[in-house]
Specification:
Blueprint lengths: L10 H22 L5 E2 L18 E4 L11 E5 L13 H8 L4 E6 L7 H22 L6 E6 L1 H11 L21 E5 L23 H6 L13 E6 L8 H12 L4 E6 L21 H18 L2
Parallel strand pairs: 3-4, 3-5, 5-6, 6-7, 7-8
Antiparallel strand pairs: 1-2, 2-4
Helix pairs in contact: 3-4
InterPro entries: AB_hydrolase_fold, BD-FAE-like_dom, GDXG_lipolytic_enzyme
Organism: Candidatus Blautia avicola
Protein name: Alpha/beta hydrolase
Length: 306
């Protein structure tokens, strides 16, 4: 078995990873297949390995029933530790933002044993594809928000910190578009590979085991004057991902004089999604936690109206 993709993944770990992914991803695709996915690369994505047992990366739109054209797109990336994707952080989230006049979409990005570089390519390509499809769906092409939970939040932040202007000479028309999103929404995300016990959970790092790579994939170290506005929310009682990840990102954004909004709820478990009846952790759902959605939607309205 060729394990060059992940130098920290042992053979027995690989087998157990494949077994767990297969079971959990069945739940994901039962949800995702209610939609009509669009492959990110029409002719197959780069560095795709059929032996990993995953599908080609894609995105899918939720039905839009608004009487006016969509104000923009909210592209949702579910969490799952880069190992799977949580179904309660997918379609239902995109559908909720569709109620507020946005075209909701879900990103089916690649997970381990693919590398962080592959995942970054997926989210970049997704933004380009959404910009290319803007005339067909009627939304402003620059009003694209990347919204993600936990690991999916880091995927969204990667898209918001490692974008480019596109290649105007590419034979692929999608590649001619910029990959810069108009906004990023970070929901209880890890954000950094260097903060708060950086040697902990090394097996989760996989292909980013070098310190240089860990800096590259830590969003707080990759801010620039062109970084899009970022909405951040987390809870003080998150026992999985230290809320200081979010606090530190907010401090870095402040130091760079970049636009952001931060909400730290006092209570709330990790993985609560919308914090309503769609949440698998129903005992942690609450009306107060669910206010993050309306706060975020209002924030997007403000940013996209400028």
């Amino acid at each position: 078995m060729n394990k060059k993709y992940d130098p920290l993944l042992h053979e027995d770990d690989y087998d157990s990873l494949m077994d767990m992914q297969s079971e959990v991803m069945e739940w994901w695709y039962e949800m995702y297949d209610e939609l009509e996915p669009v492959f990110l690369w029409e002719n197959g994505c780069p560095n795709f390995h059929e032996e990993y047992g995953q599908r080609q990366p894609s995105l899918a739109f939720l039905p839009y029933h608004g009487e006016t054209p969509p104000k923009g797109v909210v592209l949702v990336s579910a969490g799952g530790g880069f190992t799977y994707k949580s179904h309660h952080e997918g379609n239902c989230v995109a559908a909720r933002f569709a109620q507020d006049g946005y075209l909701g979409a879900v990103l089916d990005y690649r997970v381990r044993p693919y590398t962080q570089y592959d995942i970054l390519n997926d989210v970049r390509r997704a933004v380009r594809l959404l910009k290319s499809l803007a005339p067909s769906y009627g939304y402003p092409k620059d009003n694209i928000a990347l919204l993600g939970f936990s690991a999916g939040g880091q995927v969204s932040l990667l898209g918001g910190t490692h974008f480019d202007d596109g290649n105007p000479n590419s034979p692929d028309p999608v590649e001619r578009f910029s990959s810069r999103p108009g906004a990023v929404v970070s929901c209880y995300s890890s954000i950094s590979w260097t903060l708060f016990a950086p040697d902990k959970n090394m097996d989760e790092l996989g292909s980013i085991s070098s310190f240089e790579d860990r800096l590259f994939f830590s969003s707080e170290h990759n801010l620039s004057a062109d970084t899009p506005p970022i909405f951040i929310w987390t809870s003080r009682q998150d026992l999985v991902l230290d809320p200081r990840f979010s606090l530190n990102l907010a401090i870095r954004l402040y130091e760079h004089n970049l636009p952001f909004e931060l909400h730290v709820y006092d209570e709330g478990a990790h993985g609560i999604g919308l914090a309503d009846d769609t949440n698998i952790l129903k005992e942690y759902s609450s009306h107060h936690l669910n206010t993050w959605v309306s706060l975020c939607s209002e924030w997007l309205d403000e940013k996209f109206s400028r």
